[in-house]
Write a structure and sequence with these properties.
By secondary structure, the protein is mostly helical. The protein contains ten helices and four strands.
Length: 248
């Protein structure tokens, strides 16, 4: 019978990470330096940097899991965290959607068709969800209780339709205990959040874009205002569909 970590064990292991694990910014700095020294066009530098830095977050989590001897019990088809409010900056949203636009035509069209159905099916829930203050700590539970799926969640496979370009918030919430805690609770206490990695990621992507911006390159976003403008992912998707995100 498989043994899952108990809540106290997860707390103890997180304390071990906090006390003894040294985050190494060098991994992120090397990505930025390599891209700035490359001969790629600025758009490719930014979009490649976005993907590589997100990938490095995955790698850093893997190194911490190895250090603390934790193995996540998340599995394909478990979409529990896909009902949480995902908040991201306008900068990230624009980069994410530019990469979705580069998907194969069939895959891209499948996502666009899904969005058409999604915004019709969940119209009322979306109006309520997007009226919530995403800066309020109490919003998370209220949003989760709406049972509103992420617009990137495939309703048939329960898998992300843009998994490789999903935002950092989707990568840093993992469950190392019994999967039942997610199935039976809106906000279970057991899952572990790696939100402390945000600073490494945002510091690196900002350094990359700032260097290009100061060099007079086209940086795809309205820098720096897009860095500080936040909203729910469904709100950004809706603006992208309307063609207004490009103008904002």
């Amino acid at each position: 019978m498989e043994r899952y970590l108990k809540h106290q064990e997860i707390i103890d292991k997180s304390k071990k990470i906090n006390d003894s694990y040294a985050l190494d910014q060098q991994f992120f700095d090397e990505i930025v330096d390599q891209l700035l020294d490359s001969q790629l066009e600025s758009e490719n530098v930014i979009l490649t940097g976005f993907q590589r830095l997100l990938g490095e977050i995955d790698q850093e989590i893997g190194r911490m899991e190895q250090f603390s001897e934790m193995t996540p019990n998340c599995f394909k088809g478990c979409a529990f965290c896909c009902y949480f409010p995902i908040v991201l900056s306008k900068m990230e949203a624009k980069m994410m959607f530019r990469l979705i636009d580069q998907f194969s035509e069939d895959r891209r069209q499948e996502i666009y068709n899904h969005w058409d159905r999604y915004y019709e099916q969940y119209k009322n829930k979306l109006n309520l969800a997007l009226s919530m203050d995403h800066t309020d700590d109490d919003t998370k539970l209220a949003y989760k209780k709406l049972n509103l799926p992420c617009p990137m969640l495939d309703p048939e496979t329960q898998a992300c339709m843009a998994y490789e370009v999903r935002p950092i918030a989707c990568r840093t919430y993992l469950n190392y205990s019994d999967p039942k805690v997610c199935a039976e609770n809106h906000l279970p206490k057991e899952p572990f959040s790696y939100e402390f990695l945000y600073d490494l990621y945002f510091g690196a992507i900002n350094e990359l874009i700032q260097a290009l911006y100061e060099n007079g390159e086209d940086v795809l976003v309205d820098y720096p205002s897009d860095v500080w403008s936040y909203d729910y992912l469904p709100a950004w998707v809706e603006k992208w569909r309307e063609g207004t995100l490009h103008e904002l």
